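Q: What would this chain look like folded?
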Amino acid sequence: MIPDASEAAIDQIVASCDGDIRGALKALLRVNEQLEAELAQFYAAVGLDGMARGSNAVN
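A: My prediction, written as structure tokens:
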């Protein structure tokens, strides 16, 4: 079950796209791609560009 805060966030995202669920998904995918790119830049800056994706271990 999704917590109430998540439900509210989902409603807000869909509303910001005028109820267009496909538009909301596209927007979320774009945001996710941007965050992944920023994370890759961070890893490169701290010398972790070989770090396995999804790993929480930082040496």
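Residues 21-45 form the longest helix (25 residues).
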